[in-house]
Design a protein that fits this description.
152 residues, mainly alpha, globular
Length: 152
């Protein structure tokens, strides 16, 4: 009986709209990003989310946090998510089996990793010295940007 009562909370208009939106968007994502590429796209999305998280903590630590700056990063993130779709469509046009898609996506993952690692360092989170050395130029660029932002 409890099982049937729990179905009442699942069968709502809001859930129906969410299911409909997901079902109609799935073919669009499949067309834009290709098949069997969900895992690498999930990695990219997780990296972007971690970049946002570490960026917020770093900015709060060095007192340069502003919601305006954070909101201005939304178009950048959407652009980063759209680039693999463009690369996938170019792969189709050129006839390459994912060469551009995987190249662009791995490049974006690496770029986002350096950014989130530099943010984590600025936030004061522990990182291995070898990793800090690897992303030292990104750490320096972010520190300089924060210093300029703090003066303005």
């Amino acid at each position: 009986m409890r099982f049937l009562q729990s179905l009442d909370t699942l069968a709502t208009h809001a859930n129906g709209w969410a299911v409909s939106a997901g079902a109609s968007m799935a073919p669009v994502f499949h067309y834009l990003y290709g098949s069997e590429r969900r895992d690498i796209l999930v990695v990219l999305l997780v990296m972007i989310a971690l970049d946002w998280l570490t960026g917020v903590y770093a900015a709060k630590k060095d007192l340069t946090y502003s919601s305006d700056y954070g909101l201005n990063r939304v178009p950048r993130s959407l652009f980063l998510i759209a680039l693999p779709a463009v690369a996938n469509l170019l792969d189709r046009v050129v006839g390459t089996p994912g060469f551009l898609f995987f190249g662009v996506t791995f490049g974006l993952i690496y770029h986002t990793w350096t950014s989130l690692t530099a943010n984590a360092y600025r936030a004061g989170w522990p990182l291995p010295k070898s990793v800090v050395k690897l992303v030292s130029s990104e750490i320096q660029a972010k520190a300089e940007r924060a210093a300029r932002k703090g003066k303005g």
